[in-house]
Write a structure and sequence with these properties.
A 6-stranded mixed β-sheet has the order 2-3-1-4-5-6, sandwiched between helices. The chain is an alpha/beta fold. The longest helix is centred in the N-terminal third of the chain and has 25 residues. The protein has 13 helices and 6 strands.
């Protein structure tokens, strides 16, 4: 009897309800691509292909990731003890495009820290009272006291990104922000606050893969907000906003650190390593808290892609 080999499985169709929700927000080309694309790989898959320009051909394996993460989290507990004993104040900003991996990294920072001395700030859009305040005022209210670390899941840099691109602020408000922010961050540094600014850099290809996964994942579908969907077709506008932001706010007092985040696990590991490497806490394990991978982490001027270094619009 002749044996007929099985034909390759057809890709699963998209979740029709989720696709309809995307189409209700935008019919722009990229949004429609995300709405109608077949079901793809899981967002946290170890096997999903990486973009060709990424420095590594394969994603970090789960076992290696968990081993390294545990070692780094032990060091983070040493940092928390040092912060408490010496009265340090630390602010860490996590910025980047939608689905760049900011929230997952913050979660791994916080996983074993004492929440009484380390907290996450993720503000909603400003209310009527806050819109009438000085722009930085609602963020200042969340700054750390002595012995405390604060992690901002997005920050005052909303004005440099989504507010500029989506028209949520006036041009003069945007320009005034660019003028004020280096002064504000210099005051933070001069007051003794340790400020870390991380930009998670995700490629277009990887971002779309994550969006398609979120479309079909009931546990992550909430992450696809209407603003996220509308932003899908404004990639170039966000690139221009990012370049202008770096040009005006990458200062000696408060430099940006860029982390290539197409591989989430490597991004999390190297973000924690950079943070630990740059703090003078006692009993530091130099093997664990050594310098991060220079192919994935570095200053904005050296990690940005070549076509992102030219400022076209301010």
């Amino acid at each position: 009897m002749e044996i007929i080999p099985d034909s390759p499985a057809e890709p699963s169709p998209p979740n029709p309800q989720a696709a309809a929700e995307i189409e209700a927000v935008s019919h722009a080309p990229t949004a429609m691509l995300v709405a109608t694309a077949p079901h793809g790989t899981d967002e946290d898959s170890d096997e999903a292909p990486l973009p060709t320009e990424y420095p590594y051909p394969r994603r970090m394996r789960r076992r290696e990731y968990e081993r390294r993460k545990k070692e780094l989290q032990i060091e983070l507990l040493k940092v928390q003890s040092w912060v408490k004993d010496t009265g340090q104040r630390i602010i860490v900003l996590f910025e980047g495009r939608d689905a760049a991996g900011k929230g997952g990294t913050i979660k791994r920072f916080m996983e074993h820290l004492n929440p009484r001395a380390a907290r996450v700030v993720a503000l909603e859009k400003p209310n009527e009272v806050e819109r009438g305040q000085w722009y930085f005022q609602r963020y200042v209210a969340h700054f750390p006291t002595a012995g405390e670390m604060v992690f901002f899941d997005r920050s005052w840099y909303n004005r440099a990104g989504v507010e500029r691109v989506m028209g949520f602020c006036k041009p003069l408000e945007y320009l005034e922000f660019l003028r004020q922010v280096p002064l504000v961050e210099r005051m933070l540094a001069n007051s003794g606050i340790l400020l870390f600014k991380y930009w998670f850099s995700v490629s277009r290809e990887e971002q779309l893969r994550r969006f398609i996964s979120r479309r079909d994942d009931p546990l992550k579908h909430w992450k696809l907000s209407p603003i996220d969907i509308k932003s899908l077709d404004r990639w170039d506008e966000y690139t221009e906003a990012k370049k202008a932001m770096f040009f005006h706010t990458d200062t000696a007092d408060a430099p940006w650190t860029v982390i290539k985040s197409d591989d989430k696990k490597r991004a999390r590991i190297n973000c924690m390593r950079h943070f630990l490497h740059n703090l003078p806490y006692p009993d530091k394990n130099p093997r664990v808290a050594g310098e991060p991978d220079c192919m994935l982490v570095g200053p904005a001027s050296s990690v940005l892609e070549a076509d992102e270094r030219v400022i076209n619009h301010y």
